[in-house]
Design goal:
Elements lengths: L4 E10 L15 E9 L4 E6 L4 H11 L5 E4 L14 E4 L14 H15 L9 H13 L3 H13 L1 H5 L2 H15 L14 E9 L8 E8 L5 E3 L7 E3 L3 E9 L2 E8 L22 E5 L2 E7 L8 E12 L2 E13 L5 E7 L4 E8 L3 H6 L3 E8 L30
Parallel strand pairs: 1-4, 4-5
Antiparallel strand pairs: 1-2, 2-3, 6-7, 7-10, 8-9, 10-11, 12-13, 13-14, 14-15, 15-16, 16-17, 17-18
Helix pairs in contact: 2-3, 4-6
């Protein structure tokens, strides 16, 4: 894929559902993936051992023609491009995300799409991960499912190519099975016509040793895809999402919760710069708790990046809010604020980090403040809960909001 204009980026993807991240770029249970997208063309992705310049530069040199324009963010490993055979254009995401053609929005869009697909598998074995990753690359590069199937059939007819390339033969079988196989998912019957599965998580929610499930579905009504004439994506997906929680009983799965008005849609008409809050969030089951995490990242019009996490625990047949936390990072200043509410103990912790002098900023050591206080916890339940703590879904004020 020799390119005259390309975007570079890398990301980390969780391999196994039980793996926990330590935080930072070296998070445990995650693997680094490097990507190159030709402007108006195809994407190339590869699992890498690390993201150092000496690891990435040979890949870049093999895939991009000399004298090409290469767009990257400000990650340090790309510094080698400044003294290479390429014209290096860098976009500083702490200041802005796009300036004319200087952006990497295309490759970032691919990462978001790939993570949405990979999240459905609820963890992927390390040995199989490259094949799953290449499936995402294939689907992105070759259009509609009908076009993809046509290509796979063409590969299947080329017996000489398959005979002399065992790896390609295995990849062909993997894609063909994916294109033809009927769903083996035990939750397929819970996905109604006109809806699709976004997230599937399993775990024990009621301490009976059986694997319960949390599903996130999204409606696929074309009428909810709206054109966008402002900033952000050219089209807005306003299809509602459904949170569905199922308990595994001797007689089969039993629905215990269904909400179509809780989770945010992929896009918002009122804020077209807001990226999908679930793209870097999740719905998960961990240690018997149901956890919903959302990240509100603005591609334009705002510096703050809030990440919010709600933890619910089954109490009878209702999910009670037991913990809420939020962390907001201000990208252009590096300041951070964090809150934690424990609704079982009535303890609230507030943490802030702020640079108050140039010396602190140069040393990367912000001033940290931490406060602990008590509050009187009330009981809040997921079946009548809304993400905004101060207002209900219809805009009615709630003076005793859950995060007050």
């Amino acid at each position: 894929m020799k390119s005259s204009m390309a975007q570079l980026s890398w990301t980390r993807v969780t391999l196994a559902a039980h793996a926990k991240a330590n935080g930072g770029r070296g998070a445990a249970g995650k693997v680094a993936v490097f990507g190159i997208l030709k402007r108006g063309g195809k994407v190339f992705i590869k699992v890498v051992n690390d993201t150092r310049g000496e690891t990435l530069m040979p890949l870049i040199a093999r895939k991009i023609a000399p004298d090409s324009i290469v767009y990257t963010d400000s990650y340090g490993s790309y510094n080698a491009l400044d003294v290479s055979d390429f014209y290096h254009m860098r976009v500083n995401h702490s200041l802005l995300f796009a300036k004319g053609k200087n952006h990497i929005n295309g490759i970032e869009n691919f990462w978001n799409q790939a993570k949405c697909v990979l999240r459905k598998y609820n963890g992927i074995p390390k040995t199989s991960f490259p094949l799953f990753l290449k499936e995402c690359e294939f689907r992105f590069n070759y259009g509609t499912p009908k076009q993809q199937l046509k290509i796979l059939r063409g590969v299947g007819r080329n017996l000489r190519l398959i005979y002399f390339s065992p790896k390609l033969f295995l990849l062909f079988l993997f894609f063909a099975a994916s294109a033809h196989a009927a769903p083996l998912d035990p939750f397929a019957s819970w996905i109604p016509a006109g809806w699709k599965l976004l997230i599937q998580r399993t775990g024990d929610l009621n301490n009976d040793g059986a694997a319960d499930a949390a599903l996130v579905l999204e409606k696929t009504d074309p009428a909810n895809i709206k054109p966008n004439k402002g900033l952000g994506a050219p089209e807005l997906n306003l299809n509602p999402r459904r949170l569905l929680v199922l308990l595994n009983t001797p007689g089969g799965y039993k629905q215990i919760l269904s909400r179509d008005d809780l989770l945010p849609t992929q896009d918002e008409e009122e804020n077209t710069c807001l990226l999908d809050p679930l793209a870097n969030g999740d719905v998960s089951i961990e240690r018997g708790d149901l956890i919903i995490s959302l990240q509100y990242f603005m591609s334009c019009g705002g510096w703050g990046v809030p990440t919010v996490t709600y933890t619910f625990r089954l109490e009878g047949e209702r999910f009670r809010l037991v913990h809420y936390g939020d962390l907001t990072l201000i990208r252009n200043t590096g300041t951070m604020s964090q809150r934690s509410f424990d609704y079982l103990t009535g303890q609230k912790v507030t943490i802030s980090e702020e640079y108050t002098s140039e010396e602190q900023e140069q040393n990367g050591e912000p001033e940290r403040k931490e406060f602990t206080e008590k509050f009187t916890p009330r009981k809040y339940y997921l079946d009548d809960f809304f993400m905004s703590c101060d207002y209900s879904e219809d805009g009615t004020p709630q003076p005793d909001g859950w995060c007050g």
